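User: Can you predict the 3D structure for this chain?
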Amino acid sequence: MKKDLKTIETGTESTCQKYRSAIEFIGKRWTGIIIFNLFDGPKRYHELLNAIEGISDRLLSERLKDLEEEGLLEKRIIAEAPRKVEYELTPPGHEFKDVFKAILGWVEKKDEFVNRK
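Assistant: Here is the predicted structure, written as structure tokens:
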């Protein structure tokens, strides 16, 4: 059941802990940009590595594993010769589009406010 922001009990320990956990997960370095790069469809490991400037092999592997464990993406092995592996967002992973849009909308409004001063 979805809750309207007006009905969320902001002072409860449970709500605060869920929020904190979500923000810490989303805020891990590279997590957001990996999700962003998967919005337009599945990608292979090296496609992601080449698309995300500055990320190391180790960190990309680690973040992909984290996202898979959280149920936000799935690793699909394509049984061809040579074997291929693709990463694709799950439905909950695709729901991040709304989160990204909300954050970008907030940034634009904040920038407009700051620039008016």
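The chain has six helices and three strands. The first strand starts at residue 43 and ends at 44.
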